[in-house]
Structures are given as C-alpha cells and as structure tokens.
Amino acid sequence: MTQMTSRRTQAHKVRRTISEILEKIDAIEYSVGLYKHKGNHAELARAREEFHALRRHVDQLGDIIAQLDEPATAHDRAVEAAE
Q1: What is the DSSP letter of 17?
Q2: Torsion, CA 19, CA 52, CA 63, CA 10, rounded to 10
C-alpha cells in the first residue's frame, strides 16, 4: 500500500510541476505579446523573469523523473549483480 501511495504522490508532483511549466509558458507568451504590441520594456523584463522560473520548474521535473527512475535502476543493478 505504501508503494501505491508513493506512486500517487509522485504522479501528483509530476502533474503539478507540468501545470506550473505550462503556466509559465503562457505568462511568457502573454508578456512577449504585450511587449510586441506596446513596446513596454517592463513586459520584456517580466517575460525574462518568467523564463527563469520556467527553467527552475523544468529542472524540478527532471529531478522528479530521476527519482522515479532510481528504484528501477537499483533493481536492474541488483539483477545484474546476481547474474
């Protein structure tokens, strides 16, 4: 039961992080659009900030995926060592 709960928690983290990534992409698109139409450099700066936040979320997603892969990798190593 603990493994199932852990998988659900990890799946929730993945979905939440992907949602945050999509929100950042939308915010960047919106800010760049405002900059393009109005020439407001504050919007360009906001897009840059959102881009840096996006990169942090992408890194976080990579970490989550790596954590999900760790048990499989450890299991593979144990099987290879047993052979």
Answers
A1: H
A2: -20
pLDDT tens, 24-50? 999 999 999 999 999 999 999 999 999
Answer for the pair 28, 51: CB distance below 8 angstroms, yes or no.
yes
What is the distance between the alpha carbons of residues 78 and 72, in angstroms, rounded to a whole number? 10
C-beta atoms surrounding 53 within 10 Å: 16
Look-up of token digits 């990169």: 55
Q: What is the pTM of this model?
A: 0.75
3-class secondary-structure state, position 40: coil
Residue type, 27: A
Domain boundaries, the chain: 2-82
